[in-house]
Amino acid sequence: MTIFKIHKIVDDFAVKLATELAERYPPELENSQPKRRNPQRLAKAFDASFPAVQWIVLAYLLAVTTLIVSVGRLGDIAGRRRLLLAGLLLFTTASVLCGVAPTLWLLIAARAAQGLGAAIMMALAVALVGETVPPARTGSAMGLLGTMSAIGTALGPSLGGILIAGPGWRAIFLVNVPLGLLAFLLAYRTLPVDIRKPKTDRAGFDTVGTLLLATTLGAYALAMTMGRGSFGPLNMALLLAAVLGAGVFVLAEARAASPLIQLAMFRDSSLSASLAVGALVATVVMATLVVGPFYLSRALGLDAATVGVVMSIGPMVSILSGVLAGRIVDRLGAPFMVIVGLILMAAGSFALSVMPATFGIAGYTAGIIVLSLGYQLSQAANNTAVMMDVSPDRRGVMSGILNLSRNLGLITGASVMGAVFALASATNDITTAHPAAVATGMRITFAVAAILIVCAVVIALGGYRGALRKRT
Fold first, then answer.
1. Taking Cα atoms as reference points, which of 31, 29, 14 lies closest to residue 417?
2. Which tens digits make up the pLDDT trace of 184-235?
3. Residues 420, 404: Cα–Cα separation, whole Å
4. Statement: residue 23 has pLDDT above 80
5. Confidence band (pLDDT; 50, 70, 90) for 294?
6. Which class for 380: exposed (0-12), middle (13-18), buried (19 or more C-beta within 10 A)?
């Protein structure tokens, strides 16, 4: 289990720290946080424009999003331990290149390589749970992974700020090197050796499907993240390309001898429900990161240090509740606990919509605590529900699809929930918006979030109805 702990620290630590260098919040909310100085600092260091610097984050995001399913499938074919070790080495080497990059474009290329290494770790860590943990303890393992993710979320921004203020931005990448090496050594010593299959038993790798899926996901990710707040003709063209690419991908997979994704598996209502729930949950979680800092600073008038403390409450709740949530899932069953977790998230979202107006920071804190508890419980249960009955030869690709649904939810949430907040606040510049306008934006955004979670509850009830009937 130690390798999973180190993996999540390396993975989330890298994501959170690297994000300190560029767009963390949706472009329409630009220049409203002190962290905005970091892109300017990097732009000055490389004598580059802000759109060019933005590719430091986009390169990583695109690599993770476009390749996570493909590397999961490659792990199923070539061996998960072998590929995970390669991914850890790639991530560590790319971190070194990021830290010493003499030019912006070399840094961007290194970030893309770092994203590929992270995609391998994300996809295969969850897949390896089935090979190292008894089925009866799958929920506990998923809860532990959730705790490690929350640790990365809590440590990343604060340590990133310390490193930038001290050694400088290069230290953000170099600090990953000892963590990556430690993770490699632990993986090498503890993970079970891959069993080689005869060549006649090995499935082929779907190259055409991989290229089509990567292109489609890349177009969607760019459509949601480019434009610095405006959804213009280029965004529309990219979104249309993603839709067309999805159609071509489906046709190609239906004809492929060894498809990257077996489309028939989506006929399983519980799997489809789990993926949809994962995306909706990630969308709402992103709303807390998008809206929270602006509400706390603009509407409640908190200083930067206090905002940081309040923003750390959610991750701290997740850290403390992750393992317990996993044990509850093992005891009471994944489908039932997905529903319970979602109900808590809906209650937390509703509380964030109405309570801060009356109780201020206490109301905000109460809502975040309930939402975070629900998130950790639903995440552990949802991951368990997806991975519990997956055949060994498909665990990698299924883990990749599960992580992809989360990533797409985060990407969509950053764009859509940020737009909802901006529109509800009725202002073009959130930094000069009246506190009452920001409070209105907060109220409406989390009302929308509550509706999304209610939709997730309905989807989960429909998808898990068979399992829930057996339980009763």
1. 29
2. 998 888 888 877 665 544 567 888 988 999 999 989 988 887 765 567 788 8
3. 23
4. no
5. confident
6. buried
pLDDT reading at 129 higher than 70: yes
- Between CA 241 and CA 457 the distance in angstroms is 31
Residues belonging to the chain: 472
Instruction: Show the tokens assigned to 160.
Output: 């990133």
CA–CA dist 98, 374 (Å, integer) = 36
Are the C-beta atoms of 304 and 34 separated by less than 8 Å?
A: yes
* Comparison of pLDDT for 467 and 310, the residue scoring more: 310
Query: What is the maximal distance between C-alpha atoms in the chain?
Result: 68
Half-sphere exposure of 130 (CA within 13 A, CB side): 22
Q: Where do we find the tokens 């909706």?
A: 280
Distance of CA 336 to the CA centre of its chain: 24
| 276 touches 386 (CB < 8 A) | no
Give the DSSP letter of residue 27.
Answer: G
Per the listing, tokens 């690297």 go with 18
0.85 cut: is pTM over it?
no
Q: One-letter amino acid identity for 346?
A: A
- Give the closest residue to 67 by CA, choosing from 20, 123, 14: 123
Q: Where are the alpha helices (DSSP H) in 20-167?
A: 37-46, 50-78, 80-100, 104-132, 138-165
What average pLDDT does the structure give for the chain? 82
pLDDT of res. 37: 43
Query: Do 91 and 177 touch, CB atoms closer than 8 A?
Result: no
SS (HEC) of 298-323: HHCCCCHHHHHHHHCHHHHHHHHHHH
229 φ/ψ sector (left φ>0, alpha ψ -120 to 50, else beta)? left
Per-residue confidence (pLDDT) for residue 79, from 0 to 100: 87
Rounded Cα gap, residues 18 and 36, in angstroms = 13
Higher pLDDT, 101 or 148: 101
Write the secondary structure of 359-427 as one string of H (helix), E (strand) and C (coil).
Answer: HCHHHHHHHHHHHHHHHHHHHHHHHHHHHCCCCHHHHHHHHHHHHHHHHHHHHHHHHHHHHHHHHHHCC
